[in-house]
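Re: iron/sulfur cluster structure - here you go.
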Amino acid sequence: MSISKEEIYALFRVHCSGCEGLCCKNSVFTLFNHELEGLKPDRALEFTEDGTKNIRRVKMGALCPFSRDKGCEIELGARPLDCLTYPIYPSIRYKESACLIDGMTVHRSCPSCESIAADAGLLRLLRSYWEEQLSLNGPEAVSEWFGQDEYWDSENVIRC
Ligand code: SF4
Ligand code: SF4
């Protein structure tokens, strides 16, 4: 059964209501190439240099180029995985031609990381969503998506 993006979004709102959308500022977000093709952006995007065969990383600048007064201009159905899942990510083990989820993590860069890490329902839903995404994209693309970055160092995440 496919996970509803609306349901994920609704569960996040509880934690995000007091935040000015920090996750859409001063950072980068990662796109699988098929997500980028689906977006068909009508403006030039700036990418970091560590793109690969399967992924690109979009530089946000002070504010993401897709951010508008009423939020993200990308409709929920086309919203990139990184935007939908932040700050919840799986801890992944690569085994032969499969990716397995060992557990979930919440990134500490989100001001609501503690309350999100305590939300078992949201974590369960995101785990199911990630399971779908892992099988859709495959280990090579998933490994490129996560990259080798200190962003994932253990002091930067809460393990759940
Ligand atoms: S930074 Fe965290 S609390 Fe703020 S909008 Fe993003 S996910 Fe929500
Ligand atoms: S694409 Fe939308 S949700 Fe993602 S960082 Fe940009 S404004 Fe935020």
